[in-house]
């Protein structure tokens, strides 16, 4: 079978190729899925760069989300059968003609839902549901600042918040060119990150500050995140897009003085520890997409050979929406 392979860490596409690999066989609790569509995500970029914690060995096959047809089942799998149309969180290995998926992280493709749209669910929309409902526990009346508001997770969070809490959203983006996209995603107020970000966020809330800050930028903006918090506010870190070394968290005394808290979220870690929670969030996200309460408008590219350019567009900050690879 063919698969997309990263041969070594690289900042560009120089170590990426489409390779012929042995077809994997499902182990206990796994499915083999003939991939119809695979999503492109910023996690691919972080793995390609060699960021700590993403690649255990080289060469590496990226790809965290797929839709396709079950072609094999491992021992103990009863919920899915050969021929089923499924959506799966693979975490890696999805950019291939045949991918392995844990049955516990696989759900059926809802009838009538386009497979190319559904493949956008396991990553961004599932992350948004988990962040909103389980990690940040957003409530009606909360003010939520979302970094990278024009990105895939930022756009998904706008959809989820609109239908599940009605919280007030303030978007933060990295450049003025991203402001319009954040507005289009559903953020009435959009701020450009800079030295005055915390002051601008406070001004936008009449001086009170944000109840929640959702930040995928590692600790780069952590000082400003805390400076914009309302009393009893919380910061949730859920990525490290820049790849910069993570700084230490504020000392306990500082949290006491601010009446603040900080938390972290990793989709891959939660899927290993509590797969049922992640699968339930995937089902919720698919339901939102199927009934039109969340949106997906992916750019569909044909063939695995198109993946490196799409990944580079994300790395360069030039990506336009969600990229999906039509594999087979």
Automatic annotation (TrEMBL):
InterPro entries: ADH-like_C (IPR013149), ADH-like_N (IPR013154), ER (IPR020843), GroES-like_sf (IPR011032), NAD(P)-bd_dom_sf (IPR036291), Zn-ADH-like_protein (IPR051397). Residues 11-325 form the Enoyl reductase (ER) domain. It comes from Paractinoplanes rhizophilus. This is Zinc-binding alcohol dehydrogenase family protein. It comes from the Bacteria. Gene3D superfamilies: Medium-chain alcohol dehydrogenases, catalytic domain, NAD(P)-binding Rossmann-like Domain.
